Amino acid sequence: MRDPGRLLVSSPPSSSLPKEILRFIELCRSAAAGKQQGRRWALELSEALTVLSSIDENSDLVLFFNELMILEGHSAHRHQTNKNDQRSPSQR
After folding, report:
1. Tell me, what's the pLDDT at 63?
2. Positive or negative, the Cα torsion across 74, 76, 80, 81?
3. Which end of the chain is more exposed for a tag (fewer CB within 10 A), N or C?
4. How far apart are CA 89 and CA 92, in angstroms?
């Protein structure tokens, strides 16, 4: 049985997790350790992230994260499998 205080999170240099998600992970660990304030903040952040994620439920989201990887210096993400998969200048 998995220890509820342990969350398996991998963050190699090629991954791109927003700082809000990393904070959410910290709060979940705090909640799993029995801290009520961590639990309350994790629930509040979860609700806020749910609203935001409902806005981003389209095919451009993958391209958005790809663009983040490029901005972070991961040049391998500049090469697209499908050349039509590009964000418009306004989306950038």
Report:
1. 77
2. negative
3. N
4. 5
Nearest Cα residue to 40 out of 30, 53, 50, 51: 30
Confidence grade of residue 87 (pLDDT, cut at 50, 70, 90): low
pLDDT over 50 (residue 4):
no
Between 79 and 36, residue with greater pLDDT: 36
- Tokens found for residue 35: 């801290």
Residue 13 token pair: 């240099």
Angle between helices 36-55 and 19-32 (to 10 degrees): 150
d(Cα 18, Cα 68) in Å, to the nearest integer? 10
d(CA 92, CA 69): 13
